[in-house]
Design brief:
Elements lengths: L1 E4 L5 H15 L5 E4 L5 H4 L4 E5 L13 H6 L9 E8 L5 H12 L9 E4 L5 H14 L2
Parallel strand pairs: 1-2, 1-3, 3-4, 4-5
Helix pairs in contact: 1-5
Length: about 140
């Protein structure tokens, strides 16, 4: 499984690594990759996409690298699952709700509710991310 993320401060990257730990705890393999290290051809044949991006600006995805990558998935969603996660510093999670809707419009199934964490995952949020990875591994 590939866990693809964009992180400006390291918070979402930390989430990606914790999710990978959960996947590994369940006996599966996970590769954690920054979005600048992948392209659409690397993932278009994957059945499960694990994607992470923090809330940016007025609660939206990062615009220069991550949003173009997501838009490139528009024609590859049918019959595939997307698992979404990200961190935020303000707002109420609107960016995640919008992103989830966008992925559904692209044909992706969202089998597990996305995970959002305020700032850096610490305490219970670390366990939340690990459990999310464990749930993903069971799909």
């Amino acid at each position: 499984m590939k866990i693809i993320y964009w992180s400006g401060t390291g918070n979402t990257e930390a989430m990606a690594n914790l999710i990978a730990k959960g996947v590994l705890n369940s006996g599966k393999e996970a590769e954690v990759l920054s979005v600048d290290k992948v392209n659409i051809d690397d993932v278009k044949n994957e059945n499960i996409l694990i994607l992470g991006c923090p809330s940016m600006g007025a609660e939206m995805l990062e615009e220069s690298e991550f949003e173009p990558f997501i838009q490139g998935l528009e024609h590859f969603g049918q019959g595939k699952k997307a698992l979404l996660f990200g961190s935020y510093g303000w707002g109420d999670g609107e960016w995640m709700r919008n992103w989830e809707e966008q992925m559904k419009l692209y044909g992706f199934e969202i089998p597990i509710e996305p995970v959002i964490v305020n700032e850096m995952p610490e305490g219970d949020d670390k366990q939340l991310c690990i459990r999310y990875g464990e749930q993903i591994a069971k799909l």
